[in-house]
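The pair is quoted verbatim underneath.

:::
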Amino acid sequence: MGTHRRPKPPSRARIATLGMAAGAVSLLPTQSQAAPKPTVDEVRKQVEKLYEEAEAPTEEYNAIREKQRKLQREVDGTQDRLARKQQEINELRDKMGPLAAEQYRNGAIDPSLQLFLSGDPEDYLDRAQMLDRTNGRQAESLRSMQAKQRELTQEREAAQQRLKDLEETRAKAGEKKDEVQGKLAEARELLNSLTAAQRAKMEADQEREDTSAGVSDSPTTYNGPASGRAKAALDFAYAQLGKPYEWGSTGPDSFDCSGLTGASWRAAGVSLPRTVKQQYDAGRKVARADLQPGDIIYWYNDNQHNGLYVGNGKAIHAPRTGKNIEIVPLDSMPYFAASRP
């Protein structure tokens, strides 16, 4: 009769090892399963959300770029003025030269004039009482010199501040540009994750929805009741139908939303500020019940998106990346306000 030995209990280390192995086995199916890919509809919603999120920084970028262009014009103007003032000072120096030579030949060169010609006369010029030791012509020349040098110093200080502001503005513009491009890159990555068939389906769905909602980017001409400048603005806007949206663009081949409204009214002889917010602030506010063709429509808020009212409850606008300038119902987006240039 054989003996029955009680099996030796496994060691704690072995238990731990087995437990880890079992845990690893139980985890394997979860780890090997990739996250489910988003559906075509989910991708489309995410892409539209990213495009919408890119609108506000686009307008901020436009405002910064406008400030940058203004500062650049000021810097250029300051540099021109500096050059002219320096030339005037050089001419005064040339006129002072013969006076000094004549006095030197006569052995009686004025000490103050000698100081002026030998170096920077600013210390002397700040001591007005010493002008009494010069003759009339020298005093007048030195006074003129003093005034021009002070103007030159002030201009140089102003130029340095403008250059500093310009560099700061360029840096801010770069940050906003990166923010916008980051959103657009995310959208492209999502779109590129779709197959060709999925992309075609998404585009077909979008086209079907646009048609159902009364959205159209087909070229046509304006034949509504507007007259005068409003008609000229709408004639221009209609001529852009079907052209692509491009952030930061003011034409002629592509536009962003405020770029289109600004260019349209500019074609009518009216100058508008660059951004949605600036156009909103500059215009006379109009109640929705009093809308007239040519009025500027604002959706979402006063700093995101705008277009032009065309009549019959519709507007023309440059929508977003990936779409063309189109005519849409006013309520295709959350209506905010309207203004009249």
Summary: The two ends are 111 Å apart (CA to CA). Residues 1-32, 104-109, 127-131 have pLDDT under 50 and may be disordered.
